[in-house]
Amino acid sequence: MTIRGKLKALAFAAALAAGALVAPAARAEPFRVCADPDNLPFSKSEGPERGMYVELAELVGKQLNQPVEYTWYYTQMQRRALRNTILQDACDAVFALPANAEYKVRGLQRSQPFFQVGYAIVAAPTFAFKSLDDLKSQRIGVQYSSTPHLLVNQLEGFKSTTYRSAEEALGALAKGEVDVAFLWGPVAGYENKTRWASRWRVTPVSGHDLSGEVAVAVRSGKDDLAKAIDRALLELKPQIAALADKYGFPREAPINLALAQAPTKLRATALAQVRVPASLVVAVNDTVPAKPAKSKGAGAAKNSAPPEVAPAAPAAPVLSEAAQAGRVQFNDRCSHCHGSDGYSPVRERDVRYLKMRYSDKWQETATVTIKNGRPDAGMPTWKDILKESDLQQIISFLGTVQK
Ligand code: HEC
Questions:
Q1: What's the predicted TM-score (pTM) here?
Q2: Which of 19, 89, 256, 302 is least enclosed by beta carbons within 10 angstroms?
Q3: What is the distance of C-alpha 312 from the center of its chain?
């Protein structure tokens, strides 16, 4: 920290210690927050919806009497994001990290937990369940490499189909390919509310590392700030509930799915990342099936009633099959750097301008860039990862978003 920074911090700490809130007339120090620029329903750097965590940061800033300033940073690699932001004093707080004791980051402390997040069962409102056993008769859609994916594959007797994103799994649920989807609650709740007219019930579950609380992170040693945030969060309880409702985060008490005989060992990926990162999929992409894979047993006779006919889905742009497949690939593998559907607040990364940049050579340029990457600029090499057909699908999707 620079001397100036230190002085500022000291002055700030002194003001808090004295219990004095900075008078509105005085120029208040900003409350500096690090957040992901493109991670709805949690945070978003621009647009009408800012996400639950950004709206909460604003409310906390008001309580602290400080204007909020943001440092935007992609959090797909969460620990790296923390190293490059808050741990280097780029901000005072991160909204939000898992609150559980096993999730430790050296140099950070956390506020009191302020909200419970976890996986949820998404199904027709008429579907009732009390235990994992009740899901055995159902065809279950799960997201690749998520905790539910690992769970249903480690236990006997479940019929599951794997999808590469929550959105894809919900699409399959709408088409009746599966009976229930077992997905990250906030994302499922948000999608259900904003894209699917709340046609499903999203029931949160717990047990088996399926849920946990989140808290605001601040640097170790910033005890006064941590305490001030705790006080603010306590005051803001009703507003937090209202924000959760606004973004469709499930808020009921979760149904505990813990079995008497616990399955061997579950990877605790769920809470280490607030969403399941596409980077995980990239890292192991050779094993990712081009089509959603059916696990053993998926073909077994199915005796429950066919899914009820649901209201039509909200209109989505009509894409060719290749472009649709390319879009799925893009949003799985590329969106954590380029934004979902290619829209990025970082102009160089906004791939909707390829045609404007390279006119009729855009496809050629994009193909070469995707294959060889631009390692110096941070664009990875994909030629060993993507099949030629995948690449063509991605190009055909990119064609649909050019300005
Ligand atoms: C780790 C982050 C990262 C990932 C993942 C990534 N890219 Fe990039 N990409 C970048 C960066 C950074 C640039 C900008 C390079 C520059 O400034 O020249 C870029 C540039 C590009 C460009 C050229 C843009 C232009 O206008 O010149 C294309 C096309 C592109 N990426 C496509 C993709 C596709 C398709 C994927 C997924 C298969 C992908 N990228 C995955 C970081 C990434």
A1: 0.56
A2: 19
A3: 26
